[in-house]
Specification:
single chain, 404 residues, alpha/beta, Lyase, Ornithine Decarboxylase, Chain A, domain 1, TIM Barrel, nine-stranded mixed sheet, eight-stranded parallel beta barrel, 22 strands, elongated
């Protein structure tokens, strides 16, 4: 996004034009940002040609997944619904990895029927379930075992997944036991060691620590995995002040690891691919003065974007039209939902605003629409893909009659 003659634009389209034509709230995605993110990711790690599986949980729009698929990416899924969506988008099943701690019998059976590439198991009970179904199907199924490396990703506690107190994966002692118990199974092929330590990681050092934990395990078991699944979690800058993860440093750490352990790498990026492509366009319904604070009441709410309420996440907000008139009063941008947590951002100063003006919430491409709901029986927003001067509706605005 950029300002052209003080008017905010997404690629070559003015935000005010989008709001007038399609209404608000509206999710927009920039194709050029998506293309840039994917190519940057692929180029950064091309020295060892990883299998890149887009984390579908970050954005479940089938039309966006179709665009991502065109760049040769696979999919990381965590439910049968996500697996169905990935297949519907045309993702090659041989590039699909199924993760998650609580896969049901039906989900595992469905994944096996679809001949997907890999099921990453997270407990002995799950491995037994996979083995049981594989035996019934008279198949040999490729699985990974997820190791909990007890690595602190130094990110929000709500999105940490690699510490011993988190529910994900198994500890090193259990991991070694599982390898010994199942390495000679007739129906299971131990293909992959899997890890994922959290989300919104901006420093390569937690990954470096994670790889050292993996190396210790590999030294103990002397079992060669064809694949090492390093998960995702690569962060982006939400406030334009933090630096994004340095891919160059991360790839050097991985190359050092691969010099000793000859495996193929799998990545499961989500936010780093789709996060900064998305914006949420909203209209100011009312401005309510309360003491020294202005409540800027938007028509977007926590049902449309729950990250600030759920995690305390911060998303920049930009006016669609710059007026260079700065107000030094406190501004709290809030939604209309009957919850005090329905608040997007507090700012000590912002430009002067008026009712019915348009603002944009930035960097909402990941965990925006995929976490949206119909709370307060509010319809979900329309979704648009912007490509140059072209606008494509990739999901229609929900109507009340669709769910009442």
């Amino acid at each position: 996004m950029k300002y052209l003659k003080k008017k905010l634009t997404i690629e070559n389209v003015k935000v005010d034009y989008i709001a007038k034509k399609y209404g608000t709230p509206t999710y927009c995605y920039s194709y050029s940002e998506l293309k840039k993110n994917i190519n940057n990711f692929k180029n950064s790690f091309r020295s060892f040609s990883p299998l890149i599986c887009f984390a579908v949980k970050s954005n479940t729009n089938v039309n966006l997944i179709k665009e991502i698929k065109k760049f040769g990416l696979g999919a990381d899924v965590v439910s049968m619904g996500e697996l169905m969506m990935a297949i519907k988008a045309g993702i090659n099943p041989k590039k699909i990895v199924f993760s998650g701690v609580g896969k049901t019998f039906d989900e595992i059976k469905y994944a096996i029927n679809k001949n997907i590439f890999l099921i990453n198991a997270e407990s002995e009970s799950e491995i037994k379930q996979i083995e049981k179904i594989a035996k019934l199907k008279k198949k040999r199924i490729q699985i990974g075992i997820r190791l909990n490396p007890n690595t602190d990703a130094k990110t929000l506690s709500q999105i940490s997944t690699g510490k011993k107190e988190n529910k994900f994966g198994v500890d090193s002692k259990t991991f070694i036991k599982l390898i010994n118990n199942y390495k000679n199974s007739k129906n299971i092929e131990l293909k992959c060691l899997s890890v994922h330590i959290g989300s919104q990681i901006l420093d390569h050092k937690p990954y470096e620590k994670m790889l050292k934990s993996i190396a210790k395990i590999l030294e103990k078991i002397k079992y060669r995995f064809e694949f090492i699944d390093l998960g995702g979690g690569m962060g982006i800058s939400y406030d334009n002040k933090q630096k994004s993860l340095d891919y160059k440093k991360y790839q050097l750490v991985i190359k050092k690891f691969l010099n000793k352990y000859k495996s193929k790498i799998i990545f499961e990026p989500g936010r780093s691919i789709i996060g900064n492509t998305g914006t949420l366009i909203s209209k100011i319904i009312y401005i309510k003065k309360s003491g020294k604070k202005n409540f800027i009441i938007l028509d977007a709410a926590m049902n449309d974007l729950i990250r600030p309420a759920l995690y305390g996440a911060i998303h920049r907000i930009m006016p669609s039209l710059k007026n260079n008139k700065i107000s030094n009063e406190n501004h709290e941008f809030v939604g209309p939902i009957c919850e005090s947590t329905d608040s997007f951002l507090n700012l000590k100063k912002f430009q002067e605003l008026r009712e019915n003006e348009i603002v944009v919430v930035c960097d909402v491409g990941a965990y925006g629409m995929s976490l949206s709901s119909n709370y307060n029986l509010r319809p979900k927003p329309i979704e648009l893909l912007i490509k140059g001067s072209k606008i494509k509706v990739i999901k229609k605005r929900q109507r009340h009659k669709d769910f009442i």
